[in-house]
Each structure stands twice: as C-alpha cells, then as structure tokens.
Write a structure and sequence with these properties.
about 210 residues, mainly beta
C-alpha cells in the first residue's frame, strides 16, 4: 500500500444549480434582514426594512462543501444574495477579509447581476460587475463583499482554501467599507465614498 492511501480523501461530485442549490453540501447557513444590524449605512432604512419584511426574512444564503480542514483542502460553495434596496444601498453580504489574509478566493457568477466590492487594508478599492459566465479571482489581502445590483437573485460559485477563515469584524470596525454600491441613474449602480469609513485596523497579514 502506498503512502497515505488510507488517509486520502475521496473525490466529491457536486451538482450546482443556477438558483444556488448545491447537491453534496456539508453546510448551509442563512442571514436574515434582522442579522444585518450595522451592515447598511442608513440605520433608519434598515429598521424600516426589518419592520416591512419581518426580522426573520432571509436575505442571503450560502451552501458549502468541505471534505477536510487540512492544508491544501478547498471549500467550494454557492452564495445567493436576494435583490433589494436598503435606503439607496443595494442588497449585500457582510463581507470579510480572510483570517489568513494571503488566501485568495474565486467567484464565478451563474445567475443575476452583481458587484464584487474589493478593498485592501491600505486603502485600494475596486468594483467589478459580474454577470453569468464572468468570474473574478480575488487575491489575498483583499476584503470582499457581494452586492446584488439586479432584480433577481445574484448567485455565485466560490472556491477558497479551507484554512482561510473569515474576519468579519474588520469591516464593521472601520465603519463599513470605503465604498458604497448604491442606486444610480437609469436603474444602474454607482460606487460612492462612504463618509463613515475610518480606515481598516492594522493587522498582521498572514
């Protein structure tokens, strides 16, 4: 018997659907509008949405498949962000920088229209529009957030290192991301500066 034959993981077959379904997922989690306190800049608009929709209304969901935690393993999953506006901000995820900050992540759009909002701790900012068939390879050291700028669910397939982890607090502590993705003219979107952003805390970049 060759080295590690008993310990080698089996290949995993996944079925991914355009609505974000993932047959073979090992974990699913959902975020409700009530979970999004402090994420949107307009607190009054968020409270109005909580009242209108009900605090338990799901606004985005994630399915993922992970076969192990060790070095070299991958997490593959789907993210589904439902459409909507909170004030003039489009529906979004909390966003994160990887706890192991040098870990990259791939996002491939399979449905809807969205924006990947990308920022570095030292102040660079990018907004990349994704439509079905388009992908973005997010390098390490970039915080990232998915934003649905369309009228239907924005669904992406993602893949990243299983040991990456997520640091969600770094964005909240900075007063939100440096840029806001908001409704623009002719049913489009624009990115504008977030006046509440105070800069990201320094951290050891792994």
């Amino acid at each position: 018997m060759t080295r590690g034959e008993q310990d080698v993981d089996q290949p995993t077959v996944l079925t991914i659907s355009s609505d974000g379904g993932l047959d073979g997922a090992t974990r699913r989690y959902e975020k409700t509008i009530g979970d999004m306190a402090g994420v949107y800049r307009d607190e009054d608009a968020w409270r109005a949405e909580v009242e209108r929709l009900g605090a338990d209304t799901v606004v985005y969901s994630v399915n993922e498949q992970k076969y192990q935690d060790g070095p070299g393993a991958l997490i593959v999953g789907t993210s589904t962000v439902l459409p909507g506006l909170v004030g003039d901000e489009f529906a979004l995820t909390r966003g994160h920088l990887h706890a192991q900050a040098d870990r990259a992540e791939l996002y491939h759009c399979v449905a809807g229209t969205g924006v990947m909002l990308l920022e570095t701790v030292d102040g660079r900012s990018e907004t990349i529009e994704l439509t079905p068939g388009r992908a973005v390879n997010v390098p390490g050291h970039w915080a990232h957030r998915s934003v649905n700028v369309g009228d239907v669910p924005f669904v992406t397939v993602f893949c990243y290192a299983a040991d990456a982890g997520q640091d969600y607090g770094i964005i909240q502590e900075a007063g939100g991301m440096k840029s806001l993705v908001v409704a623009g003219p002719d049913r489009g979107w624009i990115a504008r500066p977030n006046p509440d952003h105070v800069g990201y805390r320094e951290r050891v970049l792994g």
